[in-house]
Amino acid sequence: MELSELSSQQEASLFRSGLKEWQEGPQVLTYGAILICRKGMAMLNVNYKDWELYEGAVITLFPNDVVELKVDGNFEAEILKYNPSLLREASLQLEQTVYSSLRKDRCRQDTPVVTNIINGMFGLLKVYFDQSECTCISQLVLCQLKAFFIGFHEYLQRNLQYRPDEVKSYRVRELFNHFMMLLEKDYKISRDVNYYAAQMNISSKYLTNIVSQVTGHTPKTIIDQYVILQLKMHLKRTTQSIKEMAWEFHFADVSFFCRYFKKHTGLTPQQIRS
How many structural domains compose the chain? Predict the structure, then answer.
């Protein structure tokens, strides 16, 4: 199975993949996922932070995460991929601190407890996915997601694994995560660094310092990269006109939209779509 979007009728899927789509450059996820490495090794960059994956490693991913994968050898992962609607439903019944915590500390390697939890969870769900007549997949996945998020969060709280550099830079990473969450929410509204700094109640200079420490880039570069990824996805996956897209992304006019797009990609929107 490919990693393309879930259909409107499909709430979740469970499958194995080499994640080739993620190896073609940064991708913006339109779905949530829980992933366990089954063989090989890889480096998965999530929101500009690298996570090493090898057999048994588990990582949680959320809609609008920016991911890019570099594979070493014959890599394969097993993935539970689910519609954002399931995450929204689960979030109504769980504390927000659970999700914010998982976004900061989303991966575990060499942790038999977490690996065993996922093996049990995926094994149970596979029984139901294999029954074509099963009509309650979404409810079953929702129950398993809630159980996993609560259990994983509680495990993380008992088994903090901060490296010395992470302890030192915890506040930096926390602010950067806040910036990325705002960008995921407001990328259509503003591409201005001052806007995001104001939302965070910090100066644009301080935001620049934070983003530079984490990524080596300026906030403006990260904003533009994220907007371009979203625009490419819209161009490839929707039939929306260029004019409608320019309006939706708050560009002054179609001409400015096309100049912005070509400046950052070297191509016109029409060339991406053709």
Answer: 2
